[in-house]
Design goal:
The complex is a heterodimer of chains A (212) and B (222). Chain A is an alpha/beta fold and 212 residues long. Chain A is built from five helices and nine strands; from the N terminus they run βββαββαααβαβββ. By secondary structure, chain B is mainly α. In chain B, helix 2 packs antiparallel against helix 3, helix 7 packs antiparallel against helix 8 and helix 8 packs antiparallel against helix 9. The longest helix of chain B is centred in the middle third of the chain and has 30 residues. Classes of the chains: A alpha/beta (212), B mainly alpha (222).
Chain lengths: 212, 222
C-alpha cells in the first residue's frame, strides 16, 4: 500500500505563481484527475511530482514506497514530448527505454499489446502522432513503476487507442498503482479523485468512486 | 551497467544514422587539414614544422562541432526528463553520453590524423606522436565540452555559445597536446613530461566534466 500526498504546495514558473496552497492525497489503486483550464498548472504539478521542477513551498511525500528511491525514480512520466528518436526504429526506441529503466519484458510482446508489432522495424520518424503516443504507452508497460504521471495521455489517440489507455490505467490501478493524470476529458471508471486547478484555491472535489 | 550500455549504444546508433552527425566532425577535420597546404604553398619544411599544430587545431574544432547537440537533442525530445528521473546517477549518464560522442566524433579524427600527416609532410615519428597525443587528449575536449553543452541545453540557439564557453578551458589541452607532439619530433624536451600532463588533463576532465554538467542540468531544469 502506498500513499502519495502533498500539502500546501506552491509552484512559481518564470516569476509567476502558478498555484499555491495545493494539497491532495491518493492511495494505491486510486487515480488523481488533475483538471483545469490551460495554464492552470496541470503539467507543472506533474513535473513537480516527478521531481523535474522544485516546489517553491510545500513538499510531496510518498509513504510506503522504496525509501532508497525518489518519487521520480518510482514514477513513469508521459509528457507532451515523447522521448523518441526519429532515426531509430520502433523496437530500438522501446528496447532502449526498457533497458535504460530496468525492464525485463520481451519487447515484441509489449509492442503487440499496444498494436505496433507490425511496425517494429520502421523508423519512428515515419509514425503518426497517435502511433508515437502508443509507443509512449508501451514504455509504461515495458517497465513497472508504482506511480504513473500522465499529461493528457489521450491526445492524438484514436478510439481504439483511448480504450487501450483506459484498460492500461484500469489494470495499473487494479495492481495497486497510483495514477496522476492531467486531462480535459473523462477519467474512470474506478476510484477517481478530482483536483481542480485554476481557481483562487485549488479544490479537491469529493467525488471519490464516481466517474465524472 | 545495463542502463548505461543501452544509453551508449543508443547514442552511437543515433549518431551514425541519417542526420546523426557522427561523420561531420571527421569531414570537417579533413577539409581544414587539406586546405592548409593549399593556403601555405609547397613549403615542405614549414608544413612539417606547423603540421602537428594544424592537426591539433583541426581536431579541437572538429570535436566542438557536435557538442551543442550532445544534450540539446535529448532536451528537445523529452528524453532528458526521463534520464533525470531514472534510478541511475546523472553523472554516469552524462559521462556515458560524452563517451558516445567521443567514440563517434573524436575517435574517427584520431584515426584520420595519421593519413593527413602525410599531406602535411610529417615524418613517421611525428605522425605516430600526433595520433597518440590526439588519442590521449581528445577525450578531454569532449568531457570539458559537456559542461558547455549542459549550460546551454535549454537555449534554442546555443550553438555558438558552447565553443565560446568551452574554448578557453580547452587551451591547456591544446598547449600540452602540441608540445608533446613537438617533443617527440624534435627532442629538445623529453616527450614524457608534456604527455603526462596531457593525460592528467584528460583524467581530470573525465571526472570533473560529468559532475559539473550534472549539477548544471539539475539547476537548469526549471
Amino acid at each position: 500500500m502506498i500513499r502519495l500526498a502533498a500539502d500546501e504546495l506552491a509552484c512559481v514558473r518564470g516569476g509567476r505563481e502558478v498555484f499555491q496552497g495545493l494539497g491532495f492525497a491518493v492511495m494505491s489503486g486510486e487515480t488523481l484527475a488533475i483538471t483545469g483550464p490551460n495554464g492552470a498548472g496541470k503539467s507543472s504539478l506533474l513535473r513537480l511530482i516527478a521531481g523535474l521542477i522544485r516546489p517553491s513551498r510545500g513538499q510531496i511525500m510518498l509513504e510506503g514506497g522504496d525509501a532508497d528511491l525518489s518519487i521520480g525514480e518510482q514514477s513513469h512520466y508521459l509528457g507532451h514530448l515523447d522521448a523518441l528518436k526519429s532515426s531509430l526504429t520502433v523496437a530500438e526506441n522501446l528496447a532502449f527505454w526498457s533497458d535504460f529503466l530496468g525492464g525485463r519484458k520481451e519487447i515484441g510482446a509489449v509492442l503487440r499489446q499496444v498494436g505496433l508489432e507490425e511496425l517494429a522495424h520502421l523508423p519512428v520518424g515515419y509514425l503518426s502522432a497517435g502511433q508515437r503516443r502508443r509507443l509512449g504507452l508501451a514504455r509504461l508497460l515495458a517497465t513497472e513503476r508504482p506511480i504513473w504521471l500522465l499529461d493528457e495521455p489521450s491526445a492524438s489517440l484514436d478510439t481504439a487507442g483511448q480504450e487501450l489507455l483506459a484498460r492500461m490505467m484500469e489494470s495499473h490501478a487494479a495492481h495497486g498503482g497510483i495514477i496522476a493524470v492531467a486531462t480535459h476529458g473523462q477519467v474512470g471508471p474506478g476510484a477517481v479523485t478530482e483536483l481542480r486547478l485554476g481557481g483562487r484555491h485549488p479544490v479537491v472535489a469529493a467525488d471519490r468512486g464516481e466517474p465524472r | 551497467m545495463r542502463p548505461l550500455l543501452a544509453l551508449l549504444f543508443r547514442d552511437m546508433r543515433v549518431a551514425v544514422r541519417v542526420g546523426g552527425g557522427a561523420l561531420i566532425g571527421v569531414v570537417f577535420f579533413l577539409m581544414v587539414v587539406t586546405l592548409v597546404p593549399f593556403a601555405i604553398g609547397p613549403d615542405l619544411v614549414l608544413l612539417g614544422r606547423i603540421g602537428p599544430a594544424i592537426l591539433w587545431l583541426g581536431a579541437l574544432l572538429a570535436t566542438l562541432l557536435g557538442l551543442d547537440r550532445l544534450l540539446a537533442t535529448d532536451f528537445e525530445d523529452g528524453s532528458l526528463d526521463l534520464i533525470l528521473m531514472a534510478p541511475i546517477s546523472l553523472e554516469l549518464a552524462v559521462a556515458t553520453k560524452a563517451l558516445a560522442h567521443w567514440l563517434t566524433t573524436g575517435l574517427p579524427v584520431v584515426i584520420a590524423a595519421p593519413l593527413l600527416g602525410i599531406l602535411l609532410n610529417l615524418g613517421p615519428e611525428t605522425t605516430g606522436a600526433v595520433a597518440l597525443t590526439l588519442f590521449a587528449g581528445t577525450p578531454a575536449l569532449t568531457f570539458i565540452g559537456v559542461i558547455g553543452a549542459s549550460l546551454t541545453v535549454a537555449l534554442r540557439r546555443g550553438g555558438l555559445l558552447v565553443p565560446v564557453l568551452v574554448l578557453p578551458l580547452n587551451i591547456p589541452v591544446l598547449i600540452f597536446g602540441v608540445s608533446a607532439t613537438k617533443a617527440a619530433a624534435a627532442g629538445t624536451i623529453p616527450f614524457g613530461a608534456p604527455f603526462a600532463v596531457l593525460c592528467a588533463l584528460t583524467l581530470m576532465s573525465v571526472v570533473i566534466g560529468p559532475v559539473a554538467a550534472a549539477i548544471a542540468l539539475r539547476q537548469g531544469l526549471d
